[in-house]
Every structure is written in structure tokens, then in C-alpha cells.
Amino acid sequence: MAAAPEPGEAGKGKPFKLLGILDVENIPCARDSILYGSLGSAVAGLGHFLLTSRIRRSCDVAVGGFILVTLGCWFHCRYNHAKLRIQERIAREGIKNKILYESTHLDPERKQTNGNGSN
């Protein structure tokens, strides 16, 4: 008899790995890419079958659609994720500099207000 999981560990367990290598829960964009790829595969394969009625070629088109849509979604999502991380890093550095230089002679806002007040 297995022990019941504790309330704090309800969601924790063995991570879901696709094909034993791709950890879908912890890798950003992996889940969405796989889901969109499978949807693209179904649409491409079914659409090709309805147009041509060739089963083998429709399966080939479905596999190709899966690969193309999955890779397209993966690269698009990873690009946006990297761009967001860069923007967060720039904002974090700006806040850190604001905290460091506030009320010192190196504060750029202080120089601007002093220049405007003397005119």
C-alpha cells in the first residue's frame, strides 16, 4: 500500500518526459510546441487526405507538418523568451543603478534638476 502524498507535495512526483529525454514540465516552450505541432500534424495530414485520398502520402505530410510546426513554434517561443529575459536584465540593472546612485553626485536626475533650477 502506497502512502498518500502530503498536501505540500501534491503536484510533485516523477516529471513527465517525452520520449525519455524532453522534460516537458521544466523546459520553457516545450509543452506549447508539442501541442501545436500535434495539432498542425492532424490538420496537415487530414487536409492532404481529403484533397488527394492518398493514405501513405498523407501520413508523410502529417509527419512533416508536425516537424515544421513544432520547430516553428519552438524557435518563435524561445526567441520571445530570450528577448524577455534580456529586457528583464536591463530593467534589473537600471533599478540597481537607481538605488546605488540615488542622492549622490553621480545621480543623473539630480544633475538635471540642478541645471533646471539655476536657469
Automatic annotation (TrEMBL):
<keyword id="KW-0999">Mitochondrion inner membrane</keyword>
<keyword id="KW-1133">Transmembrane helix</keyword>
<keyword id="KW-0472">Membrane</keyword>
<dbReference type="InterPro" id="IPR022533">
    <property type="entry name" value="Cox20"/>
</dbReference>
<comment type="similarity">
    <text>Belongs to the COX20 family.</text>
</comment>
<dbReference type="GO" id="GO:0005743">
    <property type="term" value="C:mitochondrial inner membrane"/>
</dbReference>
<dbReference type="GO" id="GO:0033617">
    <property type="term" value="P:mitochondrial respiratory chain complex IV assembly"/>
</dbReference>
<dbReference type="Pfam" id="PF12597">
    <property type="entry name" value="Cox20"/>
</dbReference>
<keyword id="KW-0496">Mitochondrion</keyword>
<keyword id="KW-0812">Transmembrane</keyword>
<protein>
    <recommendedName>
        <fullName>Cytochrome c oxidase assembly protein COX20, mitochondrial</fullName>
    </recommendedName>
</protein>
